[in-house]
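Example with several molecule types.
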Amino acid sequence: MTVSRALNNSKEISQKTKEKVLKACKDLGYKPNSAAKSLITKTTKMIGLVIPDITNQYYAYISKGVSSYLEKKGYGLILCNSDRKKNNEREYLNFLTEGRVDGIIILPVEPKKEDYEQIIMHTPMVMVDNFAEGLDISFVANDNYYGATQIIEHMVKQGYRKIGVILGSKSSTASNERYRAYKDVLEKNNIDFDTNIIIYSNATFEDGFNKAEYLINRGVDSIFAINDTVAMGVMKYCYLKGINIPKDLGLAGYDNIEQSSMFPVPLTTVDQNNKLIGEISAKILINQINEKSFKKETIILKPKLIIRKSCGEDN
Amino acid sequence: MTVSRALNNSKEISQKTKEKVLKACKDLGYKPNSAAKSLITKTTKMIGLVIPDITNQYYAYISKGVSSYLEKKGYGLILCNSDRKKNNEREYLNFLTEGRVDGIIILPVEPKKEDYEQIIMHTPMVMVDNFAEGLDISFVANDNYYGATQIIEHMVKQGYRKIGVILGSKSSTASNERYRAYKDVLEKNNIDFDTNIIIYSNATFEDGFNKAEYLINRGVDSIFAINDTVAMGVMKYCYLKGINIPKDLGLAGYDNIEQSSMFPVPLTTVDQNNKLIGEISAKILINQINEKSFKKETIILKPKLIIRKSCGEDN
DNA sequence: GTGAAAGCGCTAACAG
DNA sequence: CTGTTAGCGCTTTCAC
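Resulting structure tokens for the full complex:
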């Protein structure tokens, strides 16, 4: 008991005994056992993070944000790569809920209410990026509509009038929201809307390269790519064809990946503040864990327009 | 006890009881408590991974390799971003060794024997990338000398004779090994060695951009950059100056980051098989945990030359 | 094939 | 300020 008090910064112990105990622990190489502690305190000082792919910059930054916040608060992080597979997600969730963590941050795969109802009854959880309607839990995400509005408005202001779009898949919420913003901005500016210059894709570099040709042949004066990787594909095509960016073609991306500023023509894009997303999610979760009264929070962050040169200099 | 047997695939139980128990568990939402289990089995089914920065592609891929191997073996992963700070590393190590993990994979920060001696007495550990001499533990890394030899030889074969080099910091083992390879290849091919076209740097994009000018002014016919990001900087400089790669200047990188194939001129580089590094490290660790007899292993992987277009097409 | 007893290493609660 | 008792939820061992 005295040892326990010495190691847990209790004030019910004299400074002298405490020092003696601490020294003895060091000499003997004694370390407390977290499992035994967990068993009685019902707390693990661990958080689970379920993400699609740690190899993707967007998710890596979110993880870093989570990790750095947790470190400050004395929590550890269990990382689970779902690989965008529902089944992996399920298995990790199962693993985590064997009393391994005090809470879970999840970037879910095709979330459905039923998948999480059981879990949130026992384990605090915050969802990030994608939400399942009807769940009474906290949610943190980026405002895709806002971000796309910013960048499309910028393009319009720069004088572009025939803006081609390379979207992601039809089932991607992010992609659909950005598309919605595109339509609204065009309408607000009385610009003709033409579905022939809107293309769905898998959002890869190759898609950017291939769809660029398609769009340019249809006479677009600029392209809004669903992400920076796709924009890289477009830029590559233009480079090979001698098409000057931004003079012959305006180009905008999304995500602000590290390399976007290193492109031959630095890319105008949207920064989603991924690290912040991670930090906020972690903060909400830790608060929820430590407070008895749970208050659901929904935080939708405004991403930030990053103006570089691919749509012309700002003026 | 019967429940325990049902949940642990014991054969000392009838099929019928087992099914009944399993069903009851499901109905009641019962989940076993891993802490209680740990306490008695002295095993956590958890591995700690200490890496410098999850945001860096190189480390992200290593993490993914570790994670995917562990998943197959039913282990969880505790991720610790040391942020290249010795102090963070120490604190994470301390946290992990409170009986939280069955083993540790570490990419150490300026490793010294003394930092790990205590730990490896109690906890299986494998070191990756950087080794501390005198430790009796397994080690997994890339052969930097070999990788650089491959790419410099390729450059020589392509006809380049005045190869400028942008290195990393003087204290980086990886950088020093690659430099050593450079010198040896030059000597073997009777090419003059000129320290005026060797520069140390912080290995950033900006360094690439700035040092490119310096080297080109000194008449190099090609540049070997310490990594792909630095190479991107060089490429940017060339783009702005209208210098044609590979005709006017050969360019080689190292790492094979995802974007290196998307550059205006696809980059010739060296792939280090990072995911494999992670998988192998995890495999060695798990083996060490499960075998009573510990056999130290040292695995130095041969990286692979990736020939693209920045040093001319292969012939 | 099933169950009872004991104990893993801690801390909550209380006694001194 | 220090120590005793009990018990967290499991598995090991042994009895039936």
